[in-house]
Amino acid sequence: MSARTPDTARDIPEATVARLPVYLRALIVLADAGTATCSSEELAAAAGVNSAKLRKDLSYLGSYGTRGVGYDVEYLRYQIAREIGVTQDWPVVIVGIGNLGHALANYSGFRSRGFRVVALLDADPARHEEVVAGLDVRSFDDLEGIVEEHDVSIGVIATPAVAAQDVADRMVAAGITSVLNFAPIVLSVPEGVDVRKVDLSIELQILAYHEQRKAVTARAEDAS
Amino acid sequence: MSARTPDTARDIPEATVARLPVYLRALIVLADAGTATCSSEELAAAAGVNSAKLRKDLSYLGSYGTRGVGYDVEYLRYQIAREIGVTQDWPVVIVGIGNLGHALANYSGFRSRGFRVVALLDADPARHEEVVAGLDVRSFDDLEGIVEEHDVSIGVIATPAVAAQDVADRMVAAGITSVLNFAPIVLSVPEGVDVRKVDLSIELQILAYHEQRKAVTARAEDAS
DNA sequence: CTCGTTTTGTTCTCGCGTTCACAAACTCCT
DNA sequence: AGGAGTTTGTGAACGCGAGAACAAAACGAG
Ligand SMILES: NC(=O)c1ccc[n+]([C@@H]2O[C@H](COP(=O)([O-])OP(=O)(O)OC[C@H]3O[C@@H](n4cnc5c(N)ncnc54)[C@H](O)[C@@H]3O)[C@@H](O)[C@H]2O)c1
Ligand SMILES: NC(=O)c1ccc[n+]([C@@H]2O[C@H](COP(=O)([O-])OP(=O)(O)OC[C@H]3O[C@@H](n4cnc5c(N)ncnc54)[C@H](O)[C@@H]3O)[C@@H](O)[C@H]2O)c1
Questions:
Q1: Could you tell me which residue ranges the CoA-binding domain spans (chains A, B) (predicted)?
Q2: Is pLDDT at A115 greater than 50 in this prediction?
Q3: Domains and CATH numbers, chain B
Q4: How confident is the model at residue B224 (pLDDT cuts 50, 70, 90)?
Q5: Contact in structure between A188 and A166 (CB atoms under 8 Å)
Q6: Secondary structure of A56-85 in HEC code, one letter for each residue
Q7: Pairwise CB contact (< 8 Å): B212 & A46
Q8: Which phi and psi angles does B51 have, rounded to 5°?
Q9: Quick one: which of A115, B104, B122, B196 has the fewest CB in 10 Å?
Q10: What are phi and psi of A23, to 5 degrees?
């Protein structure tokens, strides 16, 4: 059992995993600009991080650089893409084709970054007339069939908050094991299912907090 | 100078700041359900965190609970809202009224959470005919006037990546000091300006990484 | 071949955030 | 009033991640 884990399964710190996509993006920009090689300093600047942190992050993947030279842009790009798992496309379903769902369905960036939207689902029959980004909006009841047919493991929830937990439950029951949730609610899912949330109001509120502090401290300095 | 900082300006850890909006949301749900009082255990469950963490987080704000009883829902709700700075509305401008900009403009949740969209700006003159969510889409050149008129300090960027840095520069020059960026690019801004980014592709890629690992480890277990 | 230069990979230290555990404080019941 | 039961607020231990600093490796010049 615990003799040795296979070399594909060394575990990368979560903080590093979150930055790998940023490095990947920066490498694609460099590759498109025709750069063949880059130093950790250059890549770190492009990714907006400290170069020591970048090197440490990359060292978890393996030893893909050359001392005195730097990194081969194309080679490193492939290695990171492979590590993240975006060398092939992941099929994705989007549930809730309202304001946000439309925007997501129309977004071309997913395709170029390793994802393929295979279905758009909505509970409202009035939506089923629609075609968005070349895909029919289908009934939410088609979920199970679509998940099985396309072997979908990633689902996106863009429904109102009240519906989100139900949608998540149905997704999990259908076999989806990764969820990206836009509804402002804490989802509860069984062990083994990953949930990431994107809450735009929270982002704004964090900005508001710092903004308020700027105002307070500015006033305090004026008074002195 | 450094005798003592005023009691409004104690500094709250960044990790705590990011969770306060979640607690606030949970408290609003509890208040709407008619709950007058709650324990740290209940509130923590509603917010999806550990109760010890919740108590420690709240302790940075002050001592707003009652031992043996719990927290007064309405009171704590107000205190958190005050600490975050969302007891009054913050004016916000959105730049880039494409797919995503439309969704954001139409989102009613911002209003109820302390934000008021005061203007929608786009560089494309073809967009200026439009009215979205009751607001005219205006020229990007109106930015400076709007920022001054409404005293805007928070800007949202929903333009393509190539335009994002230019937009950010113009925003900063106009006096905006907090930016929420949806474009997949690292923005560089002067000291004193806060930037938060939301990158949906990165979120999906993080899910993909873990999904891939699940597949790998499952295969490894099968083989044993 | 050797030396100086460049840049990676890694070790070490420090600080932050999480979690445990418990004393202090409050309520309620007798 | 006093004791039993609850629940907060916080001190202390621990683990992870950030950054500095440096040794090892590659390269090029002479
Ligand atoms: N629009 C934004 O910019 C924005 C910003 C932040 C958060 N959000 C959140 O994202 C979610 C979607 O926002 P929106 O503005 O697109 O809302 P919306 O009302 O425009 O769209 C929601 C869609 O979900 C569908 N739906 C409802 N119940 C469903 C169910 N049980 N199964 C399947 N589909 C169902 C509806 O028919 C509708 O088409 C909400 O939770 C919202 O809070 C949106
Ligand atoms: N649509 C999505 O779901 C989605 C998802 C993830 C990321 N994003 C990112 O969000 C951004 C917007 O996406 P979108 O799908 O809405 O794109 P879009 O092309 O539909 O809209 C972009 C809008 O910005 C305007 N614009 C361009 N240059 C401008 C400038 N200099 N000043 C002001 N306005 C300008 C355009 O006229 C257009 O209306 C992109 O950076 C995209 O990568 C979008």
A1: 85-186
A2: yes
A3: 2-84 (1.10.10.10), 94-198 (3.40.50.720)
A4: low
A5: no
A6: HHHHHHCCCEECCCEEEHHHHHHHHHHHHC
A7: no
A8: -70, -30
A9: B196
A10: -65, -40
